[in-house]
Amino acid sequence: MLSANPSTNVFNYIGEIQNRYKIQEQTRIAGMLSQKASEGEVVEVDEILSYIKDAPTNFKTFHGWAEDVDNMPVLPKYETGISFLDRALDGGFNMAQLVLLSGEPEAGKTSMGVQILENVSYGFKTAFFCFEFTARQYITTKLKSCPSFRENENMYIINDGYDIGTVADRIRALAKMGVKFILIDSQMRIDVFKARSMEEEESEKFSTLAKLAHSLEILIILIVQTSKTDSNNPMGSKKGGHESSITIRIEHVKSKSGEQREFDPSKRVIIIKKNKQTGKHFKEEVAFDINTRRFKMMYQTRQPSQTADFKDG
């Protein structure tokens, strides 16, 4: 306990405290009913309701919230270290957001997510839920290209515990340790309890992660899969697309006519399809190094990329 990093934001613990209180109340009422039953006494519904406390009514006004916000620590904006993304996001990612990273097969979804996470980890604590590959595979590949990364103490790697409940518990624990930036690879590796439909099962993942991002004021990047018929939403969940604050998509660039390859291996198109942070869509052709699997600007220019303002519908 003494070695834990203190948190200046007590709001991180409100949900946990409320859940514990509800469990205590359930236990108390259950004990009362059990005692009545053992004594052969029938308890009327009105009597049971009398044991249940009314819902709290200590709602805050705008002024009350404004006073609280004034005393909260300033949330940082995290630069991704990828110039075209930072420019599109006006300097980097704001906290308290769920970001979805989608793309065509083999377009480099994991590569971009890891590139962002590694860049942020040079200055801040991060976490990588490495579910698509083993930790050994990722570490071995990284050390071949950058041996000095061995000394990095700011990136936690989680390689097990696939169900959404375990993932959520670990995110809460990491947030208490000061981790504010998380990458999860990927949607389809996360397990949930069987529900009535795939839509419900997949939506549970996005709902849980979005609520965690908001309540803990952290940033979660979730790599997602999409179908050929709907590239705008995650596989199996239209609600997943609604839960995100930002959606980034990576697409291949077709090779020039006459070339045998279908796609140009050294180019990609980056599209920001949803952007609650700045309200701008974004699209740019960028370079992709097939050896280092890193993204960078195609043209070293100060000219702005293609953007378009949009308003909430």
Bin the helical content: 25-40%
Distance between the termini: 47 Å
Strand content: 15-25%
User: What profile does the largest beta sheet have?
Assistant: 10 strands, mixed
Our Rg estimate from Cα atoms comes to: 23 Å
Count of individual beta strands: 10
Overall mean pLDDT stands at 86
Q: Helical element count?
A: 9
Structural class: alpha/beta
Order of SSEs = HHHHEHEHEHEHEHEEEEE
Note the overall shape.
elongated
Low-confidence stretches: 301-313
Notes on the structure:
This protein is α/β, with parallel strands linked by helices and 313 residues long. Helix content is 35%, strand content 21%. The chain has nine helices and ten strands. Strands 1, 2, 3, 4, 5, 6, 7, 8, 9 and 10 form a ten-stranded mixed beta sheet that branches. Helix 7 runs parallel beside helix 8. The C terminus is likely disordered.
In short:
The chain has 313 residues and is α/β, with parallel strands linked by helices.
Secondary structure elements and pairings:
Blueprint: H1 14-38, H2 45-50, H3 62-70, H4 83-88, E1 97-103, H5 109-121, E2 126-130, H6 135-145, E3 155-158, H7 164-176, E4 181-185, H8 198-216, E5 219-223, H9 238-243, E6 246-254, E7 263-275, E8 280-289, E9 294-297, E10 306-309
Parallel strand pairs: 1-5, 1-6, 2-3, 2-4, 4-5
Antiparallel strand pairs: 6-7, 7-8, 8-9, 8-10
Helix pairs in contact: 7-8
Domain KaiC-like: 79-292
Protein name: Type II secretion system protein
InterPro entries: KaiC-like_dom (IPR014774), P-loop_NTPase (IPR027417)
